From TrEMBL:
PANTHER family: DEFORMED EPIDERMAL AUTOREGULATORY FACTOR 1 HOMOLOG, DEFORMED EPIDERMAL AUTOREGULATORY FACTOR 1 HOMOLOG SUPPRESSIN. This is MYND-type domain-containing protein. Coiled coil: none annotated. Keywords: DNA-binding, Metal-binding, Nucleus, Transcription, Transcription regulation, Zinc, Zinc-finger. Pfam families: zf-MYND (PF01753). It comes from Anguilla anguilla. The keyword Transmembrane helix does not apply. GO terms for molecular function: DNA binding; DNA-binding transcription factor activity, RNA polymerase II-specific; zinc ion binding. One of its GO terms (cellular component) is nucleus.
Length: 83
């Protein structure tokens, strides 16, 4: 959720609350990617479901799994790594 200032027609300053949406399902998001902080999720389920696509654009160090590793290893398990 972000707060942005808004100019009221009466000259008053108000804040508009912009709710972030889950990139996987579109519901209201409660968390964001801890690697890049650019995408939002409503649940761990949605975050994990989106990881296969998001890992290629996430700027988290060590997040990208090469296609060769993915094909050779079959299923690749990804762990969260704090930078």
């Amino acid at each position: 959720m972000t707060f942005q200032p808004s100019d009221d027609p009466d000259g008053k300053h108000t804040e508009v609350i912009i709710k972030q949406m889950c990139v996987n399902c579109g519901r209201e998001a409660s968390s964001e990617c801890t690697g890049c902080h650019k995408v939002n999720y409503c649940s761990v389920f949605c975050q994990r479901k989106d990881w296969r696509d998001h890992q290629h654009t996430c700027c988290q160090p060590g997040a990208v799994v090469s296609m060769q590793e993915e094909v050779q290893g079959g299923v690749v398990e990804v762990e969260k790594v704090k930078a």
